[in-house]
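Task 17 of the worksheet. Students: predict the tertiary structure of the chain below and write it out as structure tokens. Keep your answer in the requested format; marks are given for formatting as well as content.
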Amino acid sequence: KGWIELVPRIGARVARLDAPPTLESVLISGAMLGLAYRFAVMKATEEEVSRFFELAARVITIGRDPDGEAEAMAQAILEAGNYAIGIADNRRIDDVVGPVPQGALSGYIPLGIRSRRAAEEVAGLWADLAMAFRLRDPEAAERVGRQMTLSSYRRILDHQLNGPSV
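Model answer:
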């Protein structure tokens, strides 16, 4: 699953997280994350929507704060994302998306929010997702979930090509 890499004449080692995930893994994860958000919106109780809204607000606040730290934002993203995936409560999605918050693409979150501009973009996407939850719009939630994953991938690639941006 990409956690171990085999290095000639060295052996197996834990894969580096400074290389971007493969496009295939991003597309699959984005689709599954989008579906998880869709199902979460469809299944969530009013209490769960309110709790998710609070968690998303934390991501947004950190992302819009000029002094917000990438590590704090990454942790807030993981907490809010894990909560939404838990609401979705779908075994098939858990099989694919479940490992993501524990590692996989979540290890790339800090790479996707290194710059102020990136953190603000991510905060905007989380605002869109929070709105989709509040409005009970499963199609919008799915679309934003996919967009989050793809935009993160683009920022990681941009960082590799152009170096850090402001």
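Marker's comment: Residues 138-162 form the longest helix (25 residues). DSSP finds eight helices and two strands in the chain.
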